[in-house]
Amino acid sequence: MLKIRPATDADHDAIWEIFHEVVAAGDTYPFDPQMSREDALAYWFRSDTQTYVAEQDRHVFGTYILRPNWSGPAGHVANAAFMVAANARGREIGRAMGEHCLAEARRLGFRAMQFNFVVSTNQSAVRLWQKLGMKIVGTLPGAFRHPEKGYVDVYVMFRSLLDD
Amino acid sequence: MLKIRPATDADHDAIWEIFHEVVAAGDTYPFDPQMSREDALAYWFRSDTQTYVAEQDRHVFGTYILRPNWSGPAGHVANAAFMVAANARGREIGRAMGEHCLAEARRLGFRAMQFNFVVSTNQSAVRLWQKLGMKIVGTLPGAFRHPEKGYVDVYVMFRSLLDD
């Protein structure tokens, strides 16, 4: 049984393991593949950020963050980012975290959700977010340098949180 | 004669005056209108950021920043933000800074420029960026709460820096 809960300091090792694995692969996130543990955890636990983990049998297989994408007159738009351990993919952990995230964003009063950077070649993610109601509202031509495919497009995805 | 040059510590007062004026108006930037001087200058002079001012007769009328929009495999995309003092608008200072910015971005080796947040009601800015070759590549529905017009759309604008 998968459980999604707020992360604590005790989750740092597990989160860093997943974060490093995902970012070092260099095929989905616009971060330096050599990003340090310190910088990674500072980013994932920023003061304006809610951090969650997905665990099963006391093992953390995924993590996500939820934060305002901007502030002031745009503070009603949320942003989120998701990571799943490579050995746990295909088990609907991303989907469970995505649904949890949209519910949390609504609970916190956000009116919309925006993903700023979904690499177009990450088709399983694009399809998953579309199933969760996120729409491609923008395409950034060649904004990501994929390690095998070269410069590929990036999608901006968005959905209202008011209409269902 | 307008001169655009890198900002120094001696420009902090002038930059803060412009920044505060622009952000307090609440009609163009996704920042807290009450943002403090300290936070504003920390943002405008972030370690990954090039900061410039536009001056005429030793008076600063505008300022802009240029930085990578992301890092790692997306570090080739630049981002920029521009502010002009209210009493200096209509004098082509924004246009001069925009042209300077695109040239600087090319000089620094960026392959593209992205503006993440252009409020659709800010028509003079949208038109100016279009004249400089920026295209609307995405629309964020209702992502900005305008002080008079309510929730309005926001554009993501983008251009290659390779093709001319």
Largest sheet of chain A: 7 strands, mixed
Please bin the fraction of helical residues of chain A.
Answer: 25-40%
**Rounded Rg of chain A:** 15 Å
Shape of chain A: globular
Order of helices and strands of chain A: EHHEEEHEHEE
Please report which band the strand proportion of chain A falls in: under 5%, 5-15%, 15-25%, 25-35%, 35-45% or over 45%.
35-45%
Count the strands of chain A? 7
Q: Count the helices of chain A. How many?
A: 4
Question: pLDDT below 50 for ≥5 consecutive residues: which ranges of chain A?
Answer: none
**Which structural class do you get from the secondary structure elements of chain A?**
alpha+beta
User: How do the strands line up in the largest sheet of chain A?
Assistant: 1-2-3-4-5-7-6
> Biggest interface in this structure?
A-B, 37 and 37 residues
Oligomeric composition of the shown chains: homodimer
Look at the structure and give the mean pLDDT of chain A.
97
Quote the distance from N terminus to C terminus of chain A. Answer: 27 Å
